[in-house]
Design a protein that fits this description.
32 strands; alpha/beta; TIM Barrel; Immunoglobulin-like; eight-stranded parallel β-sheet; Rossmann fold; 26% helix; seven-stranded mixed β-sheet
């Protein structure tokens, strides 16, 4: 079996799926049919997958029963009525037959050159809690007895398989943050215990978080910084219905496709570790037919690669509509999620995985360098941090620039543009952090600040406007100004403002300033007395091609920051372009069409830069309509697809 040089390396993208046996789903270990497992893995390997995330179901691998005496006093752990064997596995409560079954699976994977990510504590799966009988009714995260036995299982499992060539990485388990109730401190202790146990046995493989719906709030029970501190890779499971603000538009359009990219970027930036798109899918035919699911995955693969999210792993390998056991008996949404049918018939989506993998393998340019980022988005306390981050990311993408996220208590890195969107409450950001940003603005950076109901201090010194008075607002509010469409704003209050030294870029019908610009040292401060980010959250079609280009607001704010770009889209707002510097005279640009319809595009090149080569993934040469002397490239990008452009700088420039 080939060994990967580096697990989930930067600039590369692994493709795969989450795997349960086609014949049994979550019951694969109790209804063990090795021949079916062997056929499954051979079929998935033929379809071009690289990685399988697999799950040793906790009650199957540690099938403990706790026998009690009078007044429910514990006496002894057994396997049903059988005493635990007098060996290491027995003392850890580990089932020998289950371990043998897993070895068979791992050996089959090795034969097929498939790499395994192991979800060690699999007690939560597809909406059902699975625990050994001994632990019924106990909290799997905070009960010391349960955690004690979990760590024993992890120790023995990792010890048994640490030398197996098929195993790529250890995953804490499947969405273990769904298994119990915990404080931030308790979840940290649980995570640290499992991670330390893994690393004490196998320090060579990375440890993956396996969680979903983590918070940017450091005091949240399961938060990004704690998981980033303790594990090597963070993970997103970006399903639209289960993530706030995401089940709004068709899955193969820009808002929906950028869900995984925005969430994974938020995780890696705040948590400080790379992120994998570890579970992704369209959740079956009620959300999208097979062709739409395929186009969604195609855009998602391009976007994950361009944003360095390391892996794109579908949920799941096979449909489970033929199964009657819970959770399949309970939830219709768990039954038709496969890359293939239960009979191993491939769906169009798996062909996209195969095609994209082969495309990347044929590229001669090596790993994709990290993308250039012009802006920093500073999230603030008391706001809907995910919703704010999501809309800010989409607006920035359509406006033509890339951003980095920071939490309010984190130091902001140097940038040309700082966005502090949808400010809420009276403690939005520590003063020392905000003053550090203002020092950079005084040195020449740009600051954009929009308000929900926030109360920034020193507004006149900051933005050149004064508050005359504040009152509760009734009715909708829209922003309209020169070069700006009608942009919806959300704010519960009207600030009656007086511009002291600010330029008023847009005002209400009575002349009250809404959007202003003022100098601060050598930089600029844009102030908006409302939040377009919050207003757009639940608005269907707000980013459709025919909708008003609300992102022009961000494009106006970012004019100075965009000067450092080599290539910019002048048309087709649903085209996202990332720039990846190779050296001072070479860059790679990745242009992704985030809409289902093909689009004619016009890309402007900075003076002295040229397009050396254009690469696409659909076979044949891309349609290049023209490259004119002024440095404008025009061409066509198919729907939900992308192009790679190799850029070079003239030595005379």
């Amino acid at each position: 079996m080939k060994k990967t040089a580096s697990v989930f390396a930067s600039g590369q993208l692994s493709v795969g799926c989450n795997y349960w046996a086609s014949h049994a789903g979550t019951a694969m270990w109790s209804d063990w049919q090795p021949r079916e497992v062997q056929k499954d893995l051979a079929s998935l390997a033929r379809q071009g997958l690289q990685v399988l995330r697999v799950f040793p179901m906790w009650p199957d691998f540690q099938p403990l029963t706790l026998l009690r005496t009078a007044r429910a006093t514990p006496v002894e752990f057994r396997f049903g009525e059988e005493p635990l064997p007098d060996d290491e596995w027995g003392r850890a409560g580990v089932s020998r037959s289950a371990m043998e079954h897993f070895r068979f699976l791992a050996d089959c994977a090795a034969e097929q050159d498939l790499h395994l990510v192991i979800g060690l504590i699999t007690g939560w799966m597809s909406g059902r809690l699975f625990v050994p009988p001994a632990f019924d009714g106990l909290d799997p995260i905070t009960n010391p007895m349960v955690v004690q036995w979990q760590l024993r299982f992890v120790r023995e499992f990792v010890k048994e398989f640490k030398d197996h060539p098929a195993i790529l990485a250890w995953d804490l388990g499947n969405e273990c943050n769904c298994m119990g109730h915990a404080t931030a401190e308790q979840s940290w202790v649980w995570t640290a215990g499992v991670v330390s146990t893994i690393r004490s046995i196998d320090p060579t493989r990375p440890v993956i978080s396996g969680m979903h719906s983590l918070s940017a709030d450091p005091w949240a029970a399961w938060n990004l910084e704690d998981q980033g501190e303790l594990t090597d890779f963070l993970t997103t499971h970006p399903y639209p219905p289960f993530t706030p603000h995401c089940d709004v538009d068709p899955v193969n359009t820009v808002r929906s496709i950028l869900h995984a990219t925005a969430e994974s970027t938020l995780y890696s930036d705040i948590g400080g570790k790379p992120c994998l798109v570890e579970e992704v899918g369209t959740l079956g035919p009620m959300f999208a037919d097979r062709q739409v699911a395929a186009s969604f995955s195609r855009s998602g693969l391009w976007s994950a690669w361009a944003h360095d999210h390391r892996a794109f792993i579908w949920w799941c390998a096979y449909d489970q509509s033929h199964l009657d056991a819970a959770p399949y008996d309970w939830f219709t949404v768990e039954r038709e999620l496969g890359l293939c049918t239960a009979r191993r018939e491939p769906k169009p989506v798996i062909h996209e995985f195969q095609s994209f993998r082969r495309f990347l393998e044929k590229l001669s340019m090596g790993p994709l360098p990290p993308r250039r980022r012009e802006a920093v988005c500073v999230l603030t306390r008391d706001q809907d941090q995910w919703g704010t981050a999501y809309m800010t990311f989409v607006l920035a993408k359509l406006a033509g620039f890339e951003l980095t996220f920071v939490a309010p208590h984190q130091p902001a890195p140097d940038a040309e543009l700082y966005l502090v969107p949808s400010l809420r409450g009276h403690r939005p950001i520590p003063r020392r952090r905000f003053q550090a940003i203002l020092d950079r603005v005084r040195a020449g950076a740009t600051l954009y600040l929009s308000l929900d109901d926030g109360l920034p201090d020193g507004l006149e010194a900051l933005a050149g406007v004064e508050v005359i008075h504040r009152s509760r607002r009734e009715g909708a509010l829209n922003l309209t100004g020169e070069d700006l469409p009608e942009i919806p704003l959300s704010t519960p209050f009207r600030l009656t403002l007086r511009a002291t030294r600010a330029e008023v870029l847009a005002a209400e019908s009575d002349g009250n300033p809404l959007f202003t610009r003022a100098a601060l040292g050598r930089g600029w401060v844009y102030f908006l007395a409302g939040s377009p980010e919050k207003a757009l959250l639940g608005r269907p079609g707000a980013f459709a091609p025919e909708a008003a280009p609300v992102w022009n607001l961000y494009r106006q704010v970012a004019k100075k920051a965009l000067h450092g770009r080599v290539i910019q889209s002048r048309t087709a707002a649903q085209l996202g372009v990332t720039e990846h510097p190779v050296d001072s005279r070479h860059r790679i640009a990745v242009a992704i069409n985030y809409q289902p319809d093909g689009c004619d595009v016009e890309l402007g090149l900075a003076k002295g830069w040229n397009i050396r080569r254009v690469i696409r993934n659909r076979g044949g040469k891309p349609e290049i309509k023209s490259v004119n002397p002024a440095g404008t490239w025009t061409g066509h990008v198919p729907g939900n697809d992308g192009l790679i452009l190799e850029l070079t700088k003239d030595r005379r420039a």
